[in-house]
Amino acid sequence: MKNGSLDEVLSDNPIAQINTEHLILLIVAAVGVGYLLTWFYKDKYDVRYLIRAYLLFGIVHLWIGLFVIEAAAILVIGSYLLGGVFAIFRSNHYFYS
Length: 97
Description:
By secondary structure, this protein is mainly alpha-helical.
């Protein structure tokens, strides 16, 4: 390779520097809370409660992701949105079946 060995190229890549253990923790937490909140609010037939609770979780998720785990902001927001997608599809199971 013109730029050097593959190890040198990968060591300079910012994507290779991401700590995947913390990223997996954020994703599992977001998906888990999404499932838990939809199960908890399954008897309330108003989606506003679920949305409000997930938005409150978003503040905690953002704080933990940015300041405690020190992950990149886009990864924290992406994991939060992924959990939201799971919450939306799971809430359809409870609210519309």
